[in-house]
Amino acid sequence: MSMHIIGDTAVLTGRSLKHVTRSMDTIITTAIVPIAMMLLFVYVFGGAISHGASSGTYVGYLLPGILLMTIASGISYTAFRLFTDMTTGIFGRFQSMPIARSGVLWSHVLTSLVANIISVAVVFAVAFIMGFRTGAGVWAWLAVAGILILFTLALTWVAVIPGLTAKSISGASAFSYPLIFLPFISSAFVPTSTMPAPVRWFADNQPVTPIVNTVRDLFAQQPGNSDIWIALAWMVGILVVAFAFAMVIYRRKIT
């Protein structure tokens, strides 16, 4: 049974990936806004914000938050593709076939993961061109990759919910806008210590800040602290809750 699910998911993922590769503009669009933000903050605001630090240093400070923005932007397309499948009757066709029903959702989730990996790689390339450097070793890079993958999976399952329930295309993707701007009220661009007390409280107690701090510490080869456990708790918690809600909604939709 498990091999049957894996095989069906692989076939459906291949179908979904073909749609992505035929419209690479979606991946490019996903990366454009975060890259523009990175260019803006480094070359326009960077001198004032970083108090004279080199552009490469400030790119390193910004990069973790920019990566999260890239992923948050990318998962909106997951909701869009899922909504399109729901409204065009493809789900109904799948139900009439002898395939694993969960494979339909997993194919969209895995497609999101692949597309976001490509977008994140593009952002990394631009950051290196702008002067980003790190002495992080293989294990630190693997840890960063694991965090970004877990973050992508958590947000993608969040995206599945509006993809299944939205009444319009704009409604399916609009949920991602608050997620894209959440890094602005975090430690992504400036230390939270510079913020007014109420804003600082929110910034310190929302998921982006510990994730950003953890990735930044890994790149800087800093000793680990409690941020990594807080970040993992946030991401796993969001993933579990979103997955549970998505599966309940999906079962109601296909029965």
Description of the molecule:
This protein has one domain (2-254). It is mostly helical. Helix 3 (55-87) packs across helix 10. It has helices at residues 2-22, 25-49, 55-87, 90-95, 101-129, 138-165, 169-174, 176-181, 197-204, 208-219, 227-254. The chain crosses the membrane at residues 27-49, 61-83, 104-132, 138-160, 172-190, 228-250. Residues 25-253 form the ABC transmembrane type-2 domain.
Keyword list:
ABC2_TM; antibiotic resistance; single chain; transmembrane; mainly alpha; 255 residues; transport; 11 helices; Transport permease protein
Please provide a brief summary of the model.
The chain is mostly helical. Helix content is 79%, strand content 0%.
> What is the approximate shape?
globular
How many separate domains?
1
Strand content: under 5%
Radius of gyration (CA) equals 19 Å
What is the ordering of alpha helices and beta strands? HHHHHHHHHHH
Domain ABC transmembrane type-2: 25-253
InterPro entries: ABC2_TM, ABC2_TM_bact-type, ABC_2_transport, Nod_factor_ABC_transporter
Main location: membrane
Subcellular location: Cell membrane; Membrane
